[in-house]
Amino acid sequence: LEENSEKMKNTLIAELTSKINNSIKTIEGYNNYKVKALSKMNNKGLLLKMTHETGVKWMKSKLKEVEEVIGGAQVKKHIFLVLIKFAPIILDPELKEEKEEIKETSNLSKEAITSMRWIKPIKDQ
Prior knowledge:
This protein is mostly helical. The chain is built from four helices and two strands; from the N terminus they run αββααα. The longest helix is centred in the N-terminal third of the chain and has 23 residues.
C-alpha cells in the first residue's frame, strides 16, 4: 500500500510539474524556461526548482502573471537567516548606508538584505 501511495504521489507531482510548465508558456517573455522539479513543503506549499538561473529571474519578474496562470497560486520569496561571526562593533545595523555598503562590497542585489541586527546588544558583549 505504501509503495502505491508513493507512486501516486510521484505521478501527481509529475502531472503538476507538466501543468505548470504548460501554463507559464503563455506568459510574455517566455523563453523555454522549465520547472525541473517540485518538492512538497511541510506548510503544504510547493518549492519549484527551475532548470536555469535565467528562468528563476524571469519568473521573479513575472510573479503576478505566474500567480494568475497557475490558478490560485501564491508565490512567496524564500528568506534565509544568515549569521556573521566577528562583525566589527562599529557596524550599525540600523543605518541604511551600512546595508548598502555591505550589498555593494559583497556584490548582492538591492533587495538581498531584508534586515540586520545584533544577536546580542553591544552593551552586553
